[in-house]
């Protein structure tokens, strides 16, 4: 029996080239995970805020004599954060090489039960030792300001409700990431319009949950059809139109769209005429700037002069 030759390779331009050297950007779910933060300065304060916003539990190790004001506030005064923080007023305990930590040891084991390690201290040698200890236990670790000792990086984040956008330079320029993030924020505010991108995401998410209740299949043909329907909706409706979704429109959209053949109705057919009218009003107001007014006046004047000259030329003389 002769073997069939392998199929020909696909056209080279059919797939994008692989750009090596990047990081895999993920939305890491830390809810109820235990994060160890070593250090209590300004960088540690930022790390603490980030992991608390991800609903993590935190073990913080740092001498109380040098804590950043925000760290102090989170540990003792923030009513929502205090219950999620376990604070140790000391330095990280490094086990002695001659007396490794064992189960019956009286020495503290600061990595016990930890899911993620973040160090933000000025002691480079201690940071590297913590990194090595964490790696022995396969615990993901980030060592501030030492990119080679990082399993992941912190980027500069744009946050608007459920919407999170991270700008990362792969540890090469944190300040540059912050500058780029600030420039992007202004553009994103324009893109979201009066509702804001965060609220638009909230409303689309609410619609998605209602659709999931009507079509609860996961992984099957119904789930795939549900996904295609949401994709078509987001491709068909503009961001401004998606921002107009309310309870009444969502139910009508599902009743007359999903339930009747799975078509995506137009925004206008769902009662969005008023929103469109307001949108056009906004565009007219935006267009009617001083520059546009000047250009319009000049155009009208030039047109009138040319028309008058042509008419005089064509009029018979008496």
Automatic annotation (TrEMBL):
It catalyses: precorrin-2 + NAD(+) = sirohydrochlorin + NADH + 2 H(+). Pfam families: NAD_binding_7, Sirohm_synth_C, Sirohm_synth_M. Residues 197-261 form the Siroheme biosynthesis protein Met8 C-terminal domain. One of its GO terms (biological process) is siroheme biosynthetic process. Its EC number is 1.3.1.76. GO terms for molecular function: ferrochelatase activity; precorrin-2 dehydrogenase activity. Residues 161-185 form the Siroheme synthase central domain. Keywords: NAD, Oxidoreductase, Porphyrin biosynthesis. Pathway: Porphyrin-containing compound metabolism; siroheme biosynthesis; sirohydrochlorin from precorrin-2: step 1/1. InterPro entries: Met8-like, Met8_C, NAD(P)-bd_dom_sf, Sirohaem_synthase_central, Sirohaem_synthase_N. This is precorrin-2 dehydrogenase. The lineage of its organism: Eukaryota, Fungi, Dikarya, Basidiomycota, Agaricomycotina.
């Amino acid at each position: 029996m002769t073997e069939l030759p392998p199929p020909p390779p696909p056209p080279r331009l059919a797939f994008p080239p692989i750009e090596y050297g990047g990081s895999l950007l993920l939305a890491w779910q830390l809810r109820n995970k235990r994060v160890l933060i070593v250090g209590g300065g300004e960088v540690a304060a930022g790390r603490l805020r980030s992991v608390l916003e991800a609903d993590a539990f935190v073990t913080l190790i740092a001498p109380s004599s040098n804590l950043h004001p925000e760290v102090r506030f989170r540990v003792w005064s923030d009513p929502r954060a205090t219950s999620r923080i376990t604070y140790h007023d000391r330095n990280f305990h490094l086990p002695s090489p001659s007396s490794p930590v064992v189960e019956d040891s009286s020495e503290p084991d600061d990595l016990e039960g930890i899911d993620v390690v973040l160090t933000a201290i000025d002691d480079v040698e201690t940071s590297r030792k913590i990194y090595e200890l964490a790696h022995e236990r396969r615990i993901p670790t980030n060592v501030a300001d030492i990119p080679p000792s990082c399993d992941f990086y912190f980027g500069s984040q744009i946050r608007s409700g459920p919407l999170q956008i991270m700008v990362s330079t792969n540890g090469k320029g944190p300040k540059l990431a912050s500058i780029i993030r600030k420039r992007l924020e202004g553009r994103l505010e324009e893109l979201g319009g009066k509702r804001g991108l965060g609220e638009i995401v909230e409303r689309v998410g609410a619609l998605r949950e209602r659709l999931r209740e009507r079509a609860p299949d996961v992984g099957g043909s119904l789930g795939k059809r549900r996904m295609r329907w949401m994709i078509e909706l987001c491709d068909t409706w503009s961001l401004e139109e998606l921002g107009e979704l309310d309870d009444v429109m969502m139910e009508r959209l599902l009743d007359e769209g999903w339930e009747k053949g799975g078509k995506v109705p137009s925004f206008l057919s769902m009662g969005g005429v008023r929103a469109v009218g307001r949108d056009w009003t906004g565009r007219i107001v935006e267009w009617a700037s001083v520059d546009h007014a000047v250009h319009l006046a000049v155009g009208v004047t030039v047109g009138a002069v040319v028309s008058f000259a042509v008419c005089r030329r064509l009029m018979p003389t008496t």
